[in-house]
Design brief:
alpha+beta; 4 helices; OB fold (Dihydrolipoamide Acetyltransferase, E2P); about 170 residues
C-alpha cells in the first residue's frame, strides 16, 4: 500500500528547514525549483515562503500567464505562471505545484506558480557555467556535480521587469 502524503507534515518540515537555513550562514544556500524544463535557484533571503497552490481567481483581460489573484492569509497576491511568462508553455496544476512568494522587502504581493520545488541546494558545490543569460532576472548559471544546469534567479530584476509588470492582454494576441 502506498504511503499517504501528509501535507501538514511536509509544510512543517519545509518551514523548519527554511528557518534553520535562515539562522545560519546561507550565502551558498538556495531553494531549488523547477519551471518548465529548467532548474532554478533562488536565494533564501529573497524568499518569504513556498506554499501549495490556493484557489486562484481569474482576472478578465489579463495575459494568459497571469493566472489571477489568490488570498493568502488575508492578503491578495498576484499569481503568475513563471513558465508561461517565459514562453515555456502553461504549467499544468498538480499536487506538486507550488507558489513561490518573494520576500516582503520587495514590496510586491506577487507569487510565482512553479512546477515543483527541489529542496535546498548549496551552490558552493556547483561550478559557474558560461551558459548564455537569456533573461535579465538570471543572475548567473551553474552546473551541479552531475553536470545539470541551474539558473540563479535575481528576484529584484524579475519583479521590476516592465514585461512582468504588464499583465493586461494585448489586443490581437
Amino acid at each position: 500500500m502506498a504511503k499517504k502524503f501528509n501535507l501538514r507534515e511536509f509544510q512543517t518540515q519545509l518551514s523548519q528547514q527554511l528557518q534553520a537555513a535562515a539562522s545560519r550562514d546561507n550565502s551558498g544556500s538556495r531553494l531549488g525549483f523547477r519551471v518548465g524544463d529548467v532548474n532554478w535557484l533562488v536565494s533564501l533571503s529573497d524568499t518569504e515562503e513556498v506554499i501549495p497552490v490556493p484557489p486562484i481567481v481569474k482576472v478578465p483581460g489579463a495575459c494568459r500567464w497571469f493566472r489571477g489573484v489568490a488570498n493568502i492569509r488575508g492578503n491578495l497576491f498576484a499569481v503568475s505562471d513563471f513558465a508561461d511568462f517565459m514562453g515555456q508553455g502553461v504549467t499544468s496544476e498538480h499536487a506538486d505545484c507550488r507558489l513561490l512568494i518573494p520576500h516582503h522587502d520587495f514590496g510586491v504581493n506577487a507569487a510565482l506558480l512553479v512546477r515543483n520545488t527541489l529542496g535546498l541546494k548549496n551552490i558552493n558545490r556547483y561550478q559557474p557555467s558560461s551558459a548564455r543569460v537569456a533573461h535579465p532576472w538570471v543572475a548567473r548559471h551553474y552546473a551541479d556535480e552531475a553536470g545539470v544546469d541551474w539558473c540563479d534567479m535575481d528576484f529584484g530584476q524579475l519583479l521590476g521587469n516592465t514585461e512582468f509588470l504588464k499583465v493586461e492582454a494585448q489586443i490581437g494576441n
